[in-house]
Design brief:
Order of helices and strands: HHHEEHEHEHEHEEEH
Helix content: 40-55%
Structural class: alpha/beta
Number of strands: 8
Number of helices: 8
Oligomer: single chain
Radius of gyration: 17 Å
CATH topology: Glycerol-3-phosphate (1)-acyltransferase
Number of domains: 1
Length: about 230
């Protein structure tokens, strides 16, 4: 049954993604960035609803009242694909960091490019950090949330990778708060795996704070994430 549910989900997920991307490419050039962000977030919202309907995966959000109205740097652990689309409609307006090669995917990548993400070359880490700081600062000044995954890559469910300090340095330089997030999405949607496991994805939104020392803040949020995943 899980195999059939997962197959049905992927059929709807991929086919709707192609259709939504095609429509976004046709409409996107004629509307503002703010309207693109609103319009393009409809597909991630549909995908999450479809995930619930087909695979019986629910989402519980704790601490939604902690989301600030002012621009901030959002830092989250990274376990799979779920968090990359769920947050697209939880926060607005949102700028995400992604691998540059994703923008080359026909239709989907082209649509993503119109959302003005921070597209980095992961093969050049030093340049990627400088680009993140520069373009991230630009997005914050324009009133956008900036979503970053300080682990740098997907980590197996139940584990937390080392948090890089660049996300926190971005917040410090721009004198904006960091909003820490923690979730267990890998329990239901494991990275690079076909099967989807029924259950509840819990997303915990911590209290935003200003950064005084970027390395110290990175370590503190990493430990906060580890503690929440254990509880």
């Amino acid at each position: 049954m899980i195999i059939l549910r997962s197959a049905f989900f992927y059929f709807g997920y991929i086919s709707s993604g192609v259709l939504a991307s095609l429509m976004a490419c046709l409409i996107g050039p004629f509307i503002s960035l703010d309207n693109r962000l609103k319009l393009f977030s409809l597909w991630p919202k549909f995908s999450n609803w479809f995930l619930h309907m087909t695979c019986n995966i629910k989402v519980e959000v704790v601490g939604k009242e902690n989301i600030p109205t002012a621009p901030c740097v959002i830092v989250s652990n990274h376990q799979g694909q779920w968090e990359t689309f769920y947050m697209q409609y939880l926060f607005h307006p949102l700028c995400t960091l992604l691998k540059r090669e994703l923008l080359y995917i026909p239709f989907w990548g082209w649509a993503m490019k119109m959302l003005n993400p921070i597209a980095i070359n992961r093969n050049k880490p030093k340049e990627a950090i400088l680009q993140t700081l520069e373009e991230g600062s630009n997005r914050l000044k324009k009133g956008m949330f900036v979503l970053l995954f300080p682990e740098g890559t997907r980590v197996e469910a139940g584990r937390v990778g080392k948090y890089a300090r660049s996300s926190f340095e971005l917040a410090k330089r721009n004198r904006v708060k960091v909003l820490p997030l923690c979730h267990n999405s890998g329990n239901c949607w494991p990275a690079h795996r076909f099967l989807k496991v029924p259950g509840t994805i819990t997303l915990i939104i911590g209290e935003p704070f200003y950064v005084e020392d970027s390395k110290e803040s990175a370590d503190l949020v990493m430990k906060w994430t580890e503690n929440n995943l254990r509880s």
